[in-house]
Specification:
- With 210 residues, the chain is an all-alpha fold.
- It has ten helices and no strands.
- Helix 1 packs antiparallel against helix 2.
- This is DUF1013 domain-containing protein.
Length: 210
Amino acid sequence: MADILMPKATAVWLVDNTSLTFEQIADFCGLHPLEVKGIADGEVARDIRGADPIANGQLSREEIDAAQQDAKRRMTALKSRHAEHLKPAKKAPRYTPVSRRQDRPDAIAWFVRNHPEVADAQIARLLGTTKATIDQVRNRTHWNSANIKPVDPVSLGLSTQIELDDIVRKAAEKRARDNARKGIVEPEGPTLEPAAETTQEPWPQTDDED
C-alpha cells in the first residue's frame, strides 16, 4: 500500500481512466477492493472528483501501463512533489505566560550552576528564552542580576519533570560521548540531583550585592 494524497479521489481517477483491477487500485490507494468496486458502480464517492496521480507526481504513466498488462503487479508510488507540504510544521518556540517570564533568569541560573553540560540552545528551547539572556545571566550582566536566585524550572512551572530529565539526560550522554573520544573517564552516578538539594548553595554574589 502506498502512502498517497487523497486516496479515494485517486481511486476514482484510476477507475475512470485505466483498466487496472479493483485489487490493484485498492492496494495502491489503501482501500478495500469492495470500496473500489463501489466506486466503479457509482455507489461510493459519487461526489468526489478524481485526482490524477500522474499530474500529482505519485505515479508514472509507465508504471500504470505495466500494471495494466500484468494483473498481479502492484504499483509503486513515486515520491509526491506535494510530500514536502505533509511534513509536520516546525515546532513553535515555547510560549511562556507573562506572569512566568520574570522567573526565567532564575531557571537559567539553576542550569548554569547545576548543569553546565546542558547547551545554551537546549536551555533556550526548554525555557523559551534567548542565548543572549543566558549569556547575561551567566556573566552576571543581566539587568536584574542582584535578584536572580537559582531555582529549578519545574518548581517555577516553566517545564515538566519529564522534560527536565530528558534534556539533562541528553546533555549527559553527549558529554559522555565527547569524553570517550578524548579518553576522559568520569565517575558513574546520577546527573540530576533533586531540586531541593540543588537550591541549597547561594548564587555567587558580586561585591556590590551586600
